């Protein structure tokens, strides 16, 4: 009789534990996803790049995702006449400031590599302001 009681107690504990595990694994799927600002842009499908000011470039891909790239020195003097390109590390997805460097040159000068200080994803409404 004692063996049956112990077996029943173990069964209750195991069943309860499995139920808790299934609830824990279901929680992330039920969590709401953040809306509005997309995190990554596909640079292989860039539609637009625009110098916003001397330290900021706006980029937008063909999927409607936009971001502002804030540049660090020595590239803090951009204007619309500069030639702007990208140097990628690993792939063409721009998700983090370490994924890409900006290359820019004036006239026929050799390109200068620019580090990105920050990337700020924009909503479609925010991007329309530019």
Major sheet characteristics: 4 strands, antiparallel
> Count the helices. How many?
2
Which spans have pLDDT < 50 for at least 5 consecutive residues?
7-34
Mean pLDDT: 75
Q: Tally the beta strands.
A: 9
Question: How are helices and strands ordered from N to C?
Answer: HEEEEEEEEEH
- Taken from the alpha-carbon principal axes, the silhouette is globular
Query: Which strand order does the major sheet show?
Result: 2-3-4-9
> What is the strand content?
35-45%
Distance between the termini: 78 Å
State the secondary-structure class. alpha+beta
- Overall helicity: 25-40%
Radius of gyration: 25 Å
Describe the structure.
It is a single chain. The protein contains two helices and nine strands, in the order H-E-E-E-E-E-E-E-E-E-H. By secondary structure, the chain is an alpha+beta fold. The strands form three sheets. It has a four-stranded antiparallel beta sheet. The chain is globular, with a radius of gyration of 25 Å. The N and C termini lie far apart (78 Å).
